[in-house]
Amino acid sequence: MVLTKSAFSQANVDATYGMTSEQNNEWLAKVAIADKDLQLRLIKSRLFENREKLNPGDHLKVPILIIDGVVIDDITYEKKKEFLKAQLTTEKVNIAIVDRELEGLYLDKEFTGIILIVLTDKMARLKYSKLKRMS
């Protein structure tokens, strides 16, 4: 039996942007238990690189991505997305995965999970705060 690094890294996890509710929940659970390096690879792959406009009729789910208190969505300024993608490294972030709806949390849509990322690097935070002002 031959084991490769990818066998342990779960690199084959689907990174499709929109997923069924069950697939989305499974993806969140895998991200939650992964090491930080794999978490970032999965998040970047699904929520930055494979981002696409979803048809509401398809009922596909995507977790909410919040970085330093700002929701990253389809209308987020492209320069900001590129900056974040480059800055999201294991040395510069803390990640929390909320895969179950919290009591008292109000959303105006179905709960699909929340990924909270905090930039811990002072220079990255400073640059990001300047980009936050751009729309």
First-to-last CA distance: 52 Å
Give the rounded overall mean pLDDT.
Answer: 84
Radius of gyration: 15 Å
Give the % helix: 25-40%
Write the H/E string, N to C.
HHHEEHEEH
Report strand %: 5-15%
What is this entry, summarized?
The protein has 135 residues and is α+β, with helices and mostly antiparallel strands. It has helices at 5-9, 21-33, 36-49, 78-87, 122-132, and strands spanning 64-67, 70-72, 93-98, 114-119. The model is unreliable at 1-11 (pLDDT under 50).
Explained architecture:
Strand 1 and strand 2 form a beta hairpin. The chain is globular and about 40 Å long. The protein has a four-stranded mixed beta sheet. The protein has five helices and four strands; from the N terminus they run H-H-H-E-E-H-E-E-H. The N terminus is likely disordered. The chain has one domain. By secondary structure, the chain is of the alpha+beta class.
Primary descriptors:
135 residues, alpha+beta, 4-stranded mixed β-sheet, disordered N terminus
List the helices and strands and how they pair.
Elements: H1 5-9, H2 21-33, H3 36-49, E1 64-67, E2 70-72, H4 78-87, E3 93-98, E4 114-119, H5 122-132
Parallel strand pairs: 1-4
Antiparallel strand pairs: 1-2, 3-4
Helix pairs in contact: 4-5
